Amino acid sequence: MTDQSPKPGHRIALDCMGGDLGPSEAVAGAALAIKEGSIGPADTIVLVGHEDNLRLLAQEHRALRGPRVAFRHAPGIVSPDDAPMTVLKSKRDSSMVIALEMLKEGEVDAVVSTGNTKALVAAGTIKVRPMEGAERPALAAIMPRREGHFIMLDVGANPEATPEHLVHNAVLGTIYAQSSLGIARPRVGLLTVGTEEGKGGPRINRAHALLKAMGDRINYVGPVEGFDVFGDACDVVVTDGFTGNVILKTIEGLVYMLRDLVGSKVKSNPVYLAGGVAMFPLLRELKGKLKPERYGGAPLLGLNGLVMKAHGSSNRQGIASAIRLGSEALGHGAGRRMRAALSDANAVISSTPAEG
Amino acid sequence: MTDQSPKPGHRIALDCMGGDLGPSEAVAGAALAIKEGSIGPADTIVLVGHEDNLRLLAQEHRALRGPRVAFRHAPGIVSPDDAPMTVLKSKRDSSMVIALEMLKEGEVDAVVSTGNTKALVAAGTIKVRPMEGAERPALAAIMPRREGHFIMLDVGANPEATPEHLVHNAVLGTIYAQSSLGIARPRVGLLTVGTEEGKGGPRINRAHALLKAMGDRINYVGPVEGFDVFGDACDVVVTDGFTGNVILKTIEGLVYMLRDLVGSKVKSNPVYLAGGVAMFPLLRELKGKLKPERYGGAPLLGLNGLVMKAHGSSNRQGIASAIRLGSEALGHGAGRRMRAALSDANAVISSTPAEG
After folding, report:
1. Which of A254, A256, A280, A287 should we substitute to test contact with B (largest number of B Cβ atoms within 10 Å)?
2. Would the CB atoms of B193 and A282 count as touching at under 8 Å?
3. For testing contact with chain B, the best of A154, A279, A313 (most B CBs within 10 A)
């Protein structure tokens, strides 16, 4: 499936100014990505941010001395609290917006950003534009399950997804699961509240009918419920950006609560002491796993260029991992395959009568 | 707020045939409720199901020998897999449908059922009918948080809630939090994907505007995100039945996964052994806590009569607890207060222009 011919390298812009740990950690992440071979040998990284500062920081890393690193000056910074409209109107000189402009102009093939998710979704959509055949991008999270990982999308880009958007999510998620999880024929499930047909309302029913009509184009296994997602029911969980985002954040809240409960149990009851201390590493590991962007990055799928969101609190490993995921997706020619699959899906959608 | 004058007893119908543990556990739950004073001294329980069988089972419990227990014969059984329409069309002689008919006819004041949720929602709505001022019932779950509990509604009755339905959920949830959690002025949050105004789409924006327009009628604290719910942001989390149900089931799936991961860690790594063994009681406790109906029951709020769903796998304690919650809600005159509050809310809704 993959194009095996030698390719010129890809260029990945790294927005260095938006992360909680600041530009020094971003620069260290770029160095780690090159050192560990997270990107191909011909790929380059463009560090976007305050150039003098970034050049100074880069001197500390041997991996960044050479032709595989470039710099792009951007004096402004998007803060975690900036509203999307503020960013678009008055932060055009920010590292986030300038990186996205570079992607739009074809100067780079992908953008990796630790910045404010909502601003990135809005600015990415407006600057980079949806692919032909797509109307809205979808944020795809890689989540842990009993064995391995699954992909859930959309986790927050498009809260008001139509049935057609849900089909697009299925198509985009399938191709992303191939590049990121290495699953040849990922099973796709539609998240709903009951697996018998007719549950979940007209929007879900129409999406279900359309997904069935896709035939062999995707490996649709039918509706799935919330308790199925951590099992082995499917590899790609399709939902709208409202439900997906609420699920993600609720899970995050629950894991924090569990950690605190374990802590208080340990303090209140000596029987739990040994247990609690031993269990902390497991809970810490789970907490990390369950922050989806921690796995690497959550791409904004369906745009004319790859935009990869990394968690705001990503350390250098997290940033390198987001760069690696981006590079893998580019290497699989995912963009080209997504455009073809969307066009195919839209043909199915327009020939499937609303009666289902 | 509560009517303190002496009242005649309430009558609670217990659907004895739908639970996973069968009628003997249901009958034992009724006995426990009487023995432990879960219901008022003048309240009675009507055991609904195969009468000969129930009478035989009741003989084993001293608490059930007396005038506080009655029987109603119903030969049919609703199975966990029965589709709602099947139940309504061809299981009219079932213990679930007959108990609901008794509520409709005023023979009892409440129904407690361990039966199939979807069938109970559908049959409850059609037989008992929504209260004046409400269009659809909402299933309200009591969930654990760091300190105490909160209420989330709707967790599955009405997947396609309108902004007006969300306001009804806020009103119904407020009164239920008063009776079940004993909070005088429960804080109400609207579950969404971003706390700044304008996030979450037109449906959430309209609901937010209406909830603000409610003024002092409810204690609305604004939008809340998924990671807030287990903290102390609010006491009543308002959402639609699609999102609420998916969250509940995802949490359930996650807790099962955590239990399995702890189990496998214990097997794979001796460092975890002592810890894992000591932590099992905590995880078991959490798993129980996080099944919302386990706390007692999840009432279907907004109907002309109290319908209380208990978990299908409820043991006698769970059933007694659902009976207690139902009795408490009846004792607070919740139905009357809900009707008044809905009428008040609808006046606010119709006088709040759509521009918000």
Report:
1. A254
2. no
3. A279
B202 CB neighbours in chain A (<8 A) are: 160
Distance from CA of B42 to the nearest CA of A (A): 40
Q: Domain spanning A140-292: which superfamily? A: Isopropylmalate Dehydrogenase (3.40.718.10)
The single-letter DSSP state of residue B94 is B
Nearest to B227 among A118, A252, A276 (CB): A252
Residues 6+ apart with CB under 8 A from B227: A249, A250, A252, A253, A256
Q: Does the beta-carbon distance from B227 to A256 stay under 8 Å?
A: yes
Separation in Å, CA of B139 to nearest CA in chain A: 13
C-alpha to C-alpha distance for B137 and B302, rounded to whole angstroms? 5
Residue from A215, A237, A219 nearest A227 by CA: A237
Contacts of B249 in chain A (CB under 8 A): 225-227
B271 CB neighbours in chain A (<8 A) are: 278
Other beta carbons less than 10 A from residue B121's beta carbon? 24
| β-bridge mates for residue A12, sequence order | A45, A110
- Say if domain B135-293 classifies as CATH 3.20.20.80: no
C-alpha to C-alpha distance for A316 and A318, rounded to whole angstroms: 5
Q: How far is B60 from chain A (nearest CA, A)?
A: 38
- Please count the residues of chain A: 356
Cα–Cα dist B174/B315, whole Å:
28
CA distances from A184 to A2, A261, A300, A324 (A): 11, 40, 21, 19
In chain B, whose CA is at the least distance from the CA of A83?
B196
Cα–Cα distance for residue pair A96/B284, rounded to 1 Å: 46
Domain ranges of chain B: 1-134+302-332, 135-293
For β-strands A187-191 and A306-309, DSSP reports them as unpaired
In sequence order, the 6+-apart residues with CB closer than 8 A to the CB of B318 are B29, B293, B294, B296, B310, B311
Residues A242 and A158 sit within 8 Å (Cβ to Cβ): no
Give the closest of A231, A278, A282 to B253, CB-based. Answer: A231
Q: How confident is the prediction along chain B (356 residues), in pLDDT tens digits per residue?
A: 444 444 578 999 999 998 999 999 999 999 999 999 989 889 999 999 999 999 999 999 999 998 899 999 999 999 888 888 888 888 999 999 999 999 999 999 999 999 988 899 999 999 999 999 999 999 999 888 878 889 999 999 999 899 999 999 999 999 999 988 999 999 999 999 875 655 678 899 999 999 999 999 999 999 999 888 988 899 999 999 999 999 988 888 887 777 776 666 656 655 555 555 555 666 666 665 555 444 568 899 999 999 999 988 889 999 999 999 888 888 777 888 999 999 999 999 999 988 64
Substitution target in A282, A284, A286, A287 with the highest count of B β-carbons within 10 Å is A282
Indicate yes or no: CB of B83 within 8 angstroms of CB of A196.
Answer: yes
Instruction: Provide, as residue numbers in chain A, all residues whose Cβ is less than 8 Å from the Cβ of B243.
Output: 242-243, 246
Q: Is B136 left (phi over 0), alpha (psi -120 to 50) or beta?
A: beta
For residue A231, which residues of chain B lie inside 8 Å, CB to CB? 253, 257
Cβ–Cβ below 8 Å for A226 and B247: yes
ipTM of the complex: 0.83
> SS3 of B12, please?
strand
Domains B1-134+302-332 and B135-293 share a fold: yes
Pairing of strands A149-153, A138-144: antiparallel
Topology adopted by domain B1-134+302-332:
Isopropylmalate Dehydrogenase (3.40.718)
pTM (2 d.p.): 0.86
Tokens of A101: 């402009």
The answer to whether the CB atoms of A146 and B260 lie below 8 A apart is: yes
